[in-house]
Amino acid sequence: MTPITATPGIGLIGCGGISESHLGAYKRLGLPVRALCNRTLSKARERAAEYFPEAHVCDDHRELLALPEVEVVDITTHPPERVGLVADALRAGKHVLSQKPFVLDLDEGERLIGLAEEEGVLLAVNQNGRWAPHLASIRESVRAGQVGSLQSVDVSIDWDHSWTVGTAFDHTPNLVLFDFGMHWFDFVACLLDGREVREVTATTARTPTQASPQPMLAEATMTGPDLSVHLRFNGDCTSNPLDRTVVTGSGGTLVAEGPDLKTQRLTLQRGDTHSEIPLQGEWFTTGFEGTMLELLRAIREGDTPTHSARNNLRSLELAFAACASAESGSPVHPGDVRAI
Description:
By secondary structure, the protein is of the alpha/beta class. The chain is 36% helix and 24% strand.
């Protein structure tokens, strides 16, 4: 791929609720959004009026893909319809930022990656949690060797996920474990950086008070040589929410804690020494800014983005294994389950 110097024009397909976070990030960054597309044209017009009044609006994604001024396409739709949209965008010679979860079938993901390579364009995944201040700082601290050899990861999150009730998420199997939990499977995959996970065990359950038709309780355990990972989610917590992440190594421990994903305090403990690591930004600002900026950097420099679709496949293997384990009640080896 030939490096570029000018900022490519962006087109967005899918003007649902999450698109506000995408477009808000691009507006703050002053990025050129040239077109918006949604099957219901009024939604595209509404988003354009709020964020990019000069953008072209349409209700047919093929019209957006035909615009020469659009070089990067951000696709924010739900997974079932997204595969075809991603493929069409790649065939049109556009770089693509796909909403997460990338695919529901690993083989389909491989085909899309192969198509991007054939077309000479980049395919990245909007794993915006990689730019969440506390998760990004933990990841970089581990990579810098500040805790020594990684031994364990423990994540415990209690929050209110009832905003999904009455939306398309009512029909998303393993909503908490997969759609929400995908951020943390991706976080773990980044921390492990290729280390072996031998098996994944997971469970889901409902609370007596939840309104969602999908289980709001989920747990997943991942084990490997000298390694233990535990994720616990309670999406039916209506008071005293808490988000806590503990990463322990042979030489220290990182602890991030706060009432929600936005407000976190991160400390590094090494022996008797405790030091606070300052955090800047918040998930829904720096997160959505980071995914597009990294893709644009890679395009500019002729490089591979750190959140490439191929890089994301390992995260999906862990998530698929957890979903399969929750359904079967048995441990699953990552990679054995190809689709959910």
